Amino acid sequence: MRIFQSKVALITGGSRGIGKAIALAFAEQGANVAFTYRSAGAAAESVVKEIEAKGCKAAGYQSDARSFDDTHKVVDAVIKDFGRIDILVNNAGITKDTLLMRMTEQDWDDVIDTNLKGAFNFCKAVSRQMISQREGKIVNISSIAGVIGNPGQTNYSASKAGMIGITKTLAKELASRNIQVNAVAPGFVDTDMTEKLTAQQKEALLNMIPMKRTAKPEEIASVVLFLASPASSYMTGQVVCVDGGIVM
Ligand code: NAP
Q1: Which residue CA neighbors atom 34 of ligand 1 most closely?
Q2: Which residue among 20, 64, 91, 239 has the greatest number of ligand 1 atoms within 8 angstroms of its CB, and so is best to mutate?
Q3: Is 13's C-beta closer than 6 angstroms to any atom of ligand 1?
Q4: pTM higher than 0.90, yes or no?
Q5: Residue 201 pLDDT more than 90?
Q6: 25 contacts 228 by C-beta, under 8 angstroms
């Protein structure tokens, strides 16, 4: 018996990177998986096929996490298509890195709207359904940049620190409803997001990591699954750093 058999997981940004690894890991454990993506339709279609090949139901929904209306429409569609939502993973995110002196208002708005408002949109839309189901698990993908800051990421660090605020507050608001809310704060993970760093930036990063290597997306997914599983039944409002030892 797989541990998420017949559960329904909704993952934002499931077409690539960490979100895709999370989607596949849930399917590996028997969950039916709905996920959103912004524009990568072909990539989303192949993730659907990979999940179905594991014997689970899957659907990808094109939707912009920044849009309150879009989010509510997607959540309604997932409930119609899958019947319920047991697990929400707020994973969709972007970076627009530059020093504050060069950061434009647009850089700030894009990152805050996608990462932080996106998480608000989905928490609000999905928690209503979880309250009616009398159970649920929410996992927010933050970042160590939201815990310790990172030069060149004022917008991103603020968005990820904001997600920690959402996590702790919602954990308190929803604990009595049998809904647990936790966050994972990854360090540096091999995805398209970090691919764009220069060789010099990558070397500086490696020097910061006690384990001297970056993470595979699957190493983040395994912690997300733990926080969505009965194994973490007495945890809420926590931020788990998965970072090779940077934050300790
Ligand atoms: P990625 O490879 O760039 O993938 C980003 C995903 O988010 C894609 O599925 C993308 O959809 C989706 N997305 C972006 N903007 C969206 C929007 N407005 N609406 C809906 N979906 C949207 O990123 P990643 O590295 O896997 O990162 C995933 C999460 O982990 C992010 O929240 C990121 O901040 C966090 N994180 C990453 C690292 C790292 O080192 N990689 C470290 C710490 C935290 P499309 O494919 O359609 O564009």
Answers
A1: 93
A2: 91
A3: yes
A4: yes
A5: no
A6: no
CA–centroid distance, 91 to ligand 1, in Å, is 6
DSSP readout, the chain? --TTTT-EEEESS-SSHHHHHHHHHHHHTT-EEEEEESS-HHHHHHHHHHHHHTT--EEEEE--TT-HHHHHHHHHHHHHHHS---EEEE---------GGG--HHHHHHHIIIIIIHHHHHHHHHHHHHHHHT-EEEEEE--THHHH--TT-HHHHHHHHHHHHHHHHHHHHHGGGTEEEEEEEE--BSSHHHHTS-HHHHHHHHHH-TT-SPBPHHHHHHHHHHHHSGGGTT--S-EEEESTTS--
Among 49-58, 80-89, 201-210, 228-237, which is the least confidently predicted range?
201-210
Is 162 a pocket residue for ligand 1 (Cβ < 6 Å)? no
The DSSP-derived string for 57-118 is: -EEEEE--TT-HHHHHHHHHHHHHHHS---EEEE---------GGG--HHHHHHHIIIIIIH
Question: Sheet harboring 239-242: ordered strands across?
Answer: 58-62, 32-37, 8-11, 87-90, 136-141, 179-186, 239-242
Q: Are 144 and 240 in contact (CB under 8 A)?
A: no
The two structure tokens encoding residue 237: 């409002």
Give the pLDDT band (50/70/90) at residue 5: very high
